[in-house]
Amino acid sequence: MALIAELVKELENDTIQNEDLIVCMKAYSYRVVVMAMFKAIERNYCNQRIVDRLAELSELLKHNKFLGPWQMGHVALATLALLDNENAKDKFYELFESLSENDKFLVDNFIKSESYKA
């Protein structure tokens, strides 16, 4: 398995293997985690490990501000919604139901903003 620094370089150069995206999603750097989420969306790559990790990250809805008004959890939930994968969609709907109206608004707004395409 590659070192995280090597994987970050591969993320930046768009040469990372799909299977290594989960390793990046477990990194300690929010930047790396979000880069991996955006790459998964771009490639529409998803497996059960990614669904599980995104569900874990979706709990970070306070004190984990990452991008504009969005917390890491909002970005993780949006990623689940944007992946064309039945397990990801099921998990998104399950988690989305329990959110506050404000958090639902932020997730919807993130999806509509298409910030993941930047």
Automatic annotation (TrEMBL):
Domain of life: Bacteria
Protein name: Uncharacterized protein
Organism whose genome encodes this protein: Paenibacillus borealis
